[in-house]
Specification:
179 residues, single chain
Length: 179
């Protein structure tokens, strides 16, 4: 009996959740701030590689000054309101498009550094292996429930691409599909 696509997707989600819980447990038990440190390091390296760290520091200083000025302006408006005994209207701010574009660019660059930083520690390597298993879960589930011909094709393609199957995929390739 084969399982449906919906069932396979269900199991992918369930297995992914187990992997996430394992990553959380590993980090909590060994180095609670590890993922935040990795995130900070990758962001810093990405900004440095893009040559934009000085501009971002200056922008942050200006934003801080602007925030202070904005708070002062609100206080003055509140004081004026109290004097005039009138109702104030709320102010609506908006983000500039360039803020979002720059953030996306830095995040994209940071992805390149994340793996290298994670590979520097045993905890990081464990997390990367678990994340790879999680990323490949749907293929793994399909492999586990596929006929022999698909498994042979998968193996041949892996050899052609010089790609090593994950541990779960290796187990799935060895197993006989339920039928």
């Amino acid at each position: 009996m084969s399982i449906t696509v919906t069932e396979k997707e269900h199991w992918r989600k369930r297995l992914a959740a187990r992997i996430e819980r394992r990553i959380d447990a590993l980090v909590a038990a060994t180095q609670p701030g590890f993922l935040l440190q990795v995130e900070d390091s990758t962001k810093t390296k990405a900004q440095s590689a893009l040559g934009i760290e000085q501009e971002l520091i200056a922008a942050k200083e200006l934003e801080s000054k602007a925030e202070t000025a904005s708070k002062k302006a609100k206080e003055l408006k509140a004081k004026a309101f109290a004097k005039a005994k009138r109702r104030a209207t709320s102010t609506v701010g908006y983000q500039y498009h360039t803020d979002h574009a720059l953030t996306a660019l830095v995040e994209s660059e940071a992805k390149h550094y994340r793996t290298a930083i994670m590979e520097e520690t045993e905890l990081g390597r464990q997390i990367l292996r678990l994340e790879q298993e999680k990323e490949e879960l749907l293929d793994t589930i399909w492999l586990a429930t596929s006929p022999k011909q698909i498994k042979e094709l998968w193996t041949a393609l892996g050899e052609l691409l010089e790609a090593t199957p994950t541990n779960l995929q290796a187990n799935a390739l060895k197993s006989e599909p339920a039928g």
